[in-house]
């Protein structure tokens, strides 16, 4: 603006001077003077001519700059009236020149923009950045604006200039960056996995998420003042060596032991990757606690060593019966190396003494995921026949899928020979000796089966104490039957009402130190039971009592369990009632694959009885009904 004015003023001055020289030239009588004036006049004409060309050229140049500028520009006079605008300003606001020119800045709705333009009229330069809505078009967009005063050649304030930029792209990009940063910050901060950012140069902890704070036990202020060597129990130089080795091997997974704030040492698995933030390299580390897995692996190794070094012969097959593993005792007893029998079936050790029906029933039972126990005669590689006692178990995972079978065998050949010799030499003691043998063997088998079942049904939430306790109570229930049997005058019958009273007293001793106060009521008739039924029925009562005590009184400090035993016609009826909230029934129904329910299903089948349960307003009721038998013998058919 000022350049155009200056050029115009210069041209006017030159024109006036030329006119004065021309007048002087015509009135002069001196030739010398005439020549001098002519020369001056010619020079002035040339200057005027050149000045007009320059002014025209500069004016066009500045007009072109104004119109073609990549930013919007408007000019407003001292009254605040917009008197000039370039095309870009109109395009940015989506308006028209007609609507814009003549607009008074004091009518603007955006107070910050209006204040900037007012201050320009006061001689101040200011800036604004933010959302702006045009009053002429209604268009809203993010802008950056500068407001400057405009002066003439004499330094007088003649108006103001506003320069406007559309920053929508930058605004959206920054918005996306902010959203992305917020997403990743949320992913980091709220992730349930332990995460840390570690300075790759000195190992200092730059940041740690909430899961890390909770896991390690230090506050955020404390942990961000620490180094990873304060947590990793390896010496700092060893940590650096491990990381350097991993970098060379392109490895991102590490196994370390980390120290918690309470001093506890935990096994951890660390996934680390290098990232670049603020011109600096950091290790982005995700930490998983694998202490339980490490412990489980150690326990698994113990079991593996136990199986490998067991004196029992152990064989593992797939679901098709193909041999996948045989321990040392099996290989030694049968004379086959592992390489010789891998992929073979157990037919390789068949003696030929049993028909197809025996093996068909054997495999049908296994494929129905049931345990097969018994004795048979097998044959070694050298052709020698051996008597074995076996327990073949299906291997079932937590989802109920059948994964194979494991057979545990014991060579009872010498035992069989001894039994035969004893039977021949002591014929009159045959019944007694047979009874003792079967009871010892089968009770050990019962205990083994209970422990085995308990182990297979043990889940991750079951503690060792609970595992031992549940096994202990089942064994005590069996032991109580035999203790009463050996104290009685009879050899096959026990007073079951007295058994219930004794079992309840033992359970009362067990729970007397617990927080809940459980009252037991017994209403039992005088009934004798054969040992074949006493053991399974005793185990069922024990399971139901433990189920009610554990699940029936949730949130209660007191409770009552009533046990009834009476005769109804030819049947024996056992009733167990608790005054809980019914949770024991709900738990029993939901834990369809639990050991307790499995035992109850097997045991009720063994005594050929009925088992029912229902919930009342006063709690839960369980009822066992069966017909007592008089036959003598051992508990060999319990499992």
Give the terminus-to-terminus CA distance: 109 Å
* Rg result: 50 Å
Task: Give the number of DSSP strands.
Answer: 22
Largest sheet: 5 strands, antiparallel
Characterize the overall form: elongated
Q: Structural class from helices and strands? A: alpha+beta
Strands across the major sheet, in which order?
Answer: 2-1-5-4-3
Fraction in beta strands: 25-35%
Task: Note poorly predicted spans.
Answer: 6-14, 632-639
Percent in helix: 40-55%
Task: Characterise the protein shown here.
With 639 residues, the chain is an alpha+beta fold. The protein has 20 helices and 22 strands. A five-stranded antiparallel β-sheet has the order 2-1-5-4-3, with helices on both faces. A hairpin with a 2-residue loop joins strand 21 and strand 22 (619-626). Helix 16 runs antiparallel to helix 17 (496-511) and helix 18 (531-551) packs antiparallel against helix 20.
Summarize the structure in short.
By secondary structure, the chain is an alpha+beta fold. The protein is 46% helix and 26% strand. The chain is elongated, with a radius of gyration of 50 Å.
